[in-house]
Amino acid sequence: MADGGRLHTPQEALDSLSRGLAPLACEWVALEVAGDRVLAQTLHARHDTPPFDNSAMDGYALRAADSGKVLPVSQRIMAGQQALPLEAGTCARIFTGAPLPEGADSVIMQEEVDVRDDGAFIPAGLAAGNSVRLKGREITTGTELIAQGTRLNSAALGFLAGQGFDQVPVYRKPRVGLLFTGDELKLPGESLAPGQIYNGNRFMLMDLLVRFGAELSLVEQVPDTLDAMTQALDRASRQVDVIVTTGGVSVGDADYVRRALESLGELDLWRLSIRPGKPLALGHIDQCRFVGLAGNPVSSFVGAWLFLRPLLGGLQGCKEMHVLPEVTAQADFETETAGRDHYMRVTLQWDGDSYRAYAFEDQDSSILRSCVTANALAVIKAHSKIMPGERVRCLLLVS
């Protein structure tokens, strides 16, 4: 049972999330769908790259000792062709990526060669190894390619493809169930009755969860009753690895989520000393993790970045997702905090020698517009006063 009598720190929430957290099972997926997935095993080179000495440019291959002479052109070598041994006292017309013929030790770019009827005049002073990419220059057979726990970006996919990998071992994506409370919520396109609003959190959180590597297994609007929420949590806990809810974790009479969770599992932590996002609830139903975000849209946005990102990163074995990268910036705003840390939505801009943080004017937790252009959260400690020009710590919103 969580201690409901005090407000917890963000670090306590992260500690609660990481307790017993381990990556999900490994699965093999085709390379073309492996982007942003996390390697479950360290991969090693299957062959040298490049696999043979080759030309770094279009030009002529020769023995460096023959430079300063007119050399007959004995063969023409294109990329993908097999080269013949270079005849003594000759050169070979060669193109970028083509294999260096046996006997040659250098390449001279075509712009430096004077082509004549009797051959190609090569300027003197050419050094051995000029414009040659040696076998194994990038990596040699058996060398570590990419380490376990690496999130695969575009370059990594190309690197693996160059080694002949058509499938890679990755951690399974966390299955997430997203449940919304609030009878006042409607979907865009539906008509609004008096007192109703459109559910912006639905689309914001769906996108963020996918960016964080989740597989959205269910998305459901749950009626505002204790019985409906209890049934929804029970069903979801049998299908997914993580349940995420918005709303219903505060102290109002109609806030049923916390009570439903406690009837099925455990509430590990409730309420944070931050603004926005105070009503955060963390818990579990058997092996299924539970994260209850506040219903205010900015609270959901900030909570997703601070807590869902590291949780989903941990389930995928991705260390780089455990914490948000941070920079120090010069404040372009004035603010004063009371008893809770404030995570202000800011836009960072580079002014030539440092970052400058511009804060959206209205930082109320209902103003989702403050998040639209934000690329960082400025962390202002409780009981602080920040004046323009002071340095502030900023967490980068990088998925």
TrEMBL record:
It is an enzyme of class 2 (transferase). Its EC number is 2.10.1.1. Keywords: Magnesium, Metal-binding, Molybdenum, Molybdenum cofactor biosynthesis, Transferase. Residues 177-314 form the MoaB/Mog domain. The keyword Secreted does not apply. One of its GO terms (cellular component) is cytosol. GO terms for biological process: Mo-molybdopterin cofactor biosynthetic process. PANTHER family: GEPHYRIN, MOLYBDOPTERIN BIOSYNTHESIS PROTEIN. Catalyzes the insertion of molybdate into adenylated molybdopterin with the concomitant release of AMP. NCBIfam families: Glp_gephyrin (NF045515), molyb_syn (TIGR00177). This is Molybdopterin molybdenumtransferase.
